[in-house]
Design brief:
CATH architecture: Up-down Bundle
CATH superfamily: MFS general substrate transporter like domains
Protein name: MFS transporter
Helix content: over 70%
GO molecular function: transmembrane transporter activity
Structural class: mainly alpha
Shape: globular
Organism: Streptomyces pactum
Oligomer: single chain
Subcellular location: Cell membrane
Distance between the termini: 11 Å
Largest sheet: none
Number of strands: 0
CATH class: Mainly Alpha
Order of helices and strands: HHHHHHHHHHHHHHHHHH
Strand content: under 5%
Radius of gyration: 20 Å
InterPro entries: MFS, MFS_dom, MFS_Efflux_Transporters, MFS_trans_sf
């Protein structure tokens, strides 16, 4: 494994921690600022929207900047945002801090995905992307539970200060281990924008929004759901997040392995099973053992879609993948924002803390329908997914092999 992939995974670990740790700390933050749980949920929605808009914005601003330098600048922005969150005197200021940190998220994973794919041979691209995303998933096994425990024991502000320190480690890793990889010559913004004329790129992004939205419909409100419905103690939320993280790690690695072999079947299985499991969560949430198993499955099935969807966007972006890759990361977070908002709506409407699970099931099922539509259009156009990787230009493949 190229050491540069380790550096990208370190950065992903820090970003993953700050993205997900807020779910376990919503009650503490809400209580400290004197706001309701649905209002505190805007810290999730705001972060997700910041990723969605920040991904293309920061990528476009970085079109003239070498990829390594841009990754370093993004980690610096991430550090500033988390420090602002840690020191925020009011809820609105913390929300601003979350948005500032989120601006780095999409572009880091988008540019990082391209760098990771360029470091390996063409038939290993999805695996390399999955390796980078392993940092994000491991954050949910180590960073998020530990951050939740610290936040509940010492104070949530300490958690965000520690996350800022993680950002410093990520910045150092990128500076030390990622090689200088300037942008490909001749690829300009108009070439990057042309990728959005491809219906398969757009369908993959729509699947990303809906599929990942299904995951976050349930997970955003996991703390109040598990304590008020299932009967877990507040301290148990930490270990439930560990289970979710373990599922994410396994699902991400399996998704990366099979995306290089059978990309569309991997999406059919993961999205279909995700819809079923989310629907069942409305029942299993009333039993401690069943809910714990369900949380693992949601993490695994949700993150099994990440490498294949990211690879599908890269395959169909026709030699100018950076912006499309970053926008697809934004699409993951648009799904987060959409589902966090919808989950808050159904809770505020009085349907209870399990109602967001139904929202998630519908979103995942809709993503599955789009996956079948995408495959049907691909067959009609005579461009089967098995040869989609052939759309990568020869010069990019040569760069990948050289590494």
């Amino acid at each position: 494994m190229p050491l540069a992939l380790l550096a990208l995974a370190i950065g992903a670990f820090g970003i993953g921690t700050t993205e997900f740790v807020i779910m376990g700390l919503l009650p503490e933050v809400a209580g400290d600022y004197g706001v309701s749980i649905p209002t505190a949920g805007f810290l999730v929605t705001g972060y997700a929207l910041g990723v969605m808009f920040g991904a293309p914005l920061m990528t476009v601003l970085g079109t003239k900047v070498p990829r390594k330098r841009m990754l370093m600048l993004l980690m610096g922005l991430f550090i500033v945002g988390n420090l602002l969150s840690a020191l925020a005197p009011a809820f609105s200021v913390m929300l601003i801090g979350r948005v500032v940190a989120s601006l780095a998220h999409g572009a880091f994973f988008g540019i990082g995905s391209v760098v990771a794919a360029d470091l390996v041979a063409p038939h290993k691209k999805a695996g390399a992307i999955a390796t980078m995303f392993t940092g994000l998933t491991v954050a949910n096994v180590v960073g998020v539970p530990l951050g939740t425990l610290v936040g509940q024991s010492v104070g949530w502000r300490v958690t965000f200060a520690a996350v800022a320190a993680l950002g410093v480690v990520g910045l150092a890793g990128v500076a030390k281990l990622v090689p200088d990889m300037p942008r490909a010559e001749g690829v300009r913004l108009r070439h990057e924008l042309a990728a959005f004329k491809n219906v398969q790129v757009l369908l993959a992004m729509a699947m990303t929004v809906l599929g990942f939205g299904g995951v976050f419909a349930a997970i955003t409100y996991i703390a109040p759901m598990m304590t008020h419905v299932t009967g877990f103690a507040e301290g148990s939320v930490t270990w439930l997040l560990v289970l979710f993280g373990l599922g994410m790690v396994g699902g991400n690695l399996v998704g990366g392995r099979f995306a290089d072999r059978a990309l569309m079947p991997m999406l059919y299985v993961s999205l279909g099973a995700l819809a079923v499991v989310l629907a069942l969560f409305t029942l299993t949430a009333h039993n401690k053992t069943a809910s714990a198993v369900t949380i693992v499955l949601i993490g695994a099935l949700g993150f099994a879609t990440v490498p294949p969807l990211q690879k599908r966007v890269l395959d169909h972006a026709h030699g100018a993948p950076t912006l499309a890759s970053a926008v697809n990361i934004g699409a993951f977070n648009l799904g987060n924002a959409l589902s966090a908002w919808l989950g808050g709506v159904v809770i505020a409407a009085g349907f209870g803390y399990t109602a967001p699970n139904w929202v998630g099931a519908v979103l995942a099922a809709t993503a599955l329908v789009l996956a079948f539509l995408s495959a049907a259009l691909e067959r009609r156009d005579g461009a089967p997914g098995a040869v989609a990787a052939g759309s990568v230009p020869a010069e990019e493949q040569a760069v990948a092999v050289d590494h």
